[in-house]
Write a structure and sequence with these properties.
The chain is of the alpha+beta class. The chain contains nine helices and 20 strands. The chain is globular and about 70 Å long.
Length: 482
């Protein structure tokens, strides 16, 4: 879908002008996406798309509080200046009126707060500038490198499959309290699978690597291909192992999946209400308790190098973890775990008032760091007498919120390490583990590197994680998945 002749800024201004309620917020999201897909050592599809989504959040004040109506529409037709297209229904006005009707019919919002004022808000980008965009040229260096890997893998009787995508989203926020903020977010990911039916390679072994990137300038296809090939070579020897507890090395990607799951459960209100692993035994929370044996720090920072994200709250609906009532509030570096101790839990202004804890909003990146750690995954392999090396975790599901016990599968390569070297590929497992328990038991952490989580990276791609050594990772059953 191509953009209409009106700008995002014009749509914001006209929607606010059309508003007849007691308050209004308008979000216009401009998306520009380029992608490549390949299979069997050949590009199959590529494309570029553009899209616009307009969200109107209408507020109605009543004797019992503030009610909220949220309406969203893609493909909205508008003319110049955000006005109606001549001879056609005024789709923007229809959207505003629909949000106002929904607001009048809704019960008062529990998390209602006064709208943020310009004096309270964080800093945004240049309001009047055109939306940022991407196009197929973002792959100018990546695509030729991928072609060379196709040739190399074809000669080795291996097949490459995968997908690369680059999206740039410009979000414009305007409110009847005077906010005019915008944020431009580039997000890129590349995922490669290698498969083989070559003689001597166990069971048509499959392996995966992925990378998150802002602009593809830092994506080294030769290095990604070499890592995939190394793992395919490891799989020339096959070892079957039973379920049990094994010393296990978790690479940054697998650590990211577990820490994203932890981050998603760190709401202060849920903890105070006794719902989560962060709830105190006698009420309250576990803030100040030691969670990790090592002095690890888990933090989010909108300005983290290579992981930059929105420096202010930007969301389209009320909620427990993030609420549109907080739209525009500044976000700063927050240490969720500091030196191994639980230091903060996610808070909206509403939950902060209920819990008496500081407001600490959700930030769209996550870093786990052990100050001074320099070990690499290869170095940790070299220091392992006997253990397992994972690559990917998959199909992760919650079993028990009170302990944050998760279950899931290993996928695309589990390897046996003996005497400091990888000696072969082993069967897959179902695991049962808690991210909090992993932090309690981890005996070694390496240096953090930017990484892409295998399962959760689709919606949370900005992470930097270290490899971890777990002395007794619980492989609960053998899995036939591969």
């Amino acid at each position: 879908m191509s953009r209409s002749s009106s700008t995002a800024q014009e749509i914001v201004e006209r929607a606010l002008k059309l508003s007849r309620g007691d308050g209004c917020m308008v979000l216009v999201e401009e998306r520009s996406t380029a992608n490549l897909r390949w299979a069997g050592n050949s590009l199959t599809t590529n494309g570029v798309t553009e899209g616009r989504t307009v969200t109107v959040i209408a507020l109605t004040e009543g004797s019992h509080g503030t009610s909220v109506g949220v309406m969203e529409r893609s493909g909205l037709r508008t003319g110049a200046g955000g006005e109606a297209v001549p001879g056609a229904p005024d789709e923007l006005e229809e959207l505003v009126r629909a949000a106002e009707r929904a607001s009048r019919e809704a019960v008062p919002a529990e998390d209602a707060q006064p709208m943020v004022t310009p004096q309270e808000a964080g800093a945004g980008g240049e309001w009047d500038a055109a939306p940022s965009t991407t196009d197929i040229s973002v792959f100018a260096e990546f695509a030729p490198g991928l072609g060379r890997e196709f040739d190399r893998y074809g000669a080795a009787n291996h097949l490459l499959y995968g997908y690369a995508e680059h999206e740039v989203t410009s979000t414009f926020l305007g409110t009847s309290s005077g906010l005019r903020l915008r944020h431009d977010q580039p997000t890129g990911t590349v995922e490669l699978n290698a498969k083989s039916a070559a003689p001597g390679v166990a069971g048509g072994h499959s392996t995966w690597v992925g990378q998150a990137t802002r602009d593809f300038a830092d994506v080294d296809t030769e290095a990604l291909g070499a890592e995939l090939n190394r793992r395919m070579e490891w799989a020339r020897n096959r070892v079957d192992l039973p379920a049990g507890r094994y010393e296990t090395l978790l690479p940054p990607s697998a650590v990211a999946d577990m820490m994203i799951e932890l981050y998603g459960e760190n709401g202060a209100r849920d903890a105070v209400e006794g719902r989560t692993v962060f709830s105190g035994a006698d009420g309250g929370t576990r803030l100040g308790e030691r969670l990790a044996r090592l002095p690890l720090t888990l933090y989010s920072d909108p300005a983290a190098a290579g992981l930059e994200c929105a420096p202010f709250v930007l969301t389209d609906a009320p909620g427990r973890r993030a609420t549109a009532f907080d739209n525009g509030l500044p976000l700063r570096r927050t240490e969720w775990i500091s030196g191994g101790e639980l230091a903060a839990l996610n808070q909206t202004r509403h939950s902060a008032a209920l819990t008496g804890l500081p407001m600490t909003g959700h930030i769209d990146n996550l870093v786990l760091d052990l100050p001074g750690a320099s070990a690499t995954l290869d170095g940790m392999i070299a220091g392992t007498e006997r253990g397992l090396l994972l690559t990917c975790l998959w199909y992760i599901r919650m079993v028990d919120p009170q302990t944050m016990l998760l279950t899931g599968l290993t996928r695309d390569g589990v390897y046996l390490v003996e005497d400091g070297k990888v000696s072969g590929a082993v069967n897959n497992f179902r695991f049962n583990e808690s991210p909090v328990s992993l932090l309690e038991r981890a005996t070694e952490a390496g240096a953090p590197t930017r990484t892409l989580a295998r399962e959760t990276g689709d919606f949370f791609s900005r992470t930097a994680m270290p490899p971890l050594r777990i002395p007794d990772f619980n492989m609960s059953t053998v899995s036939q998945a591969f």
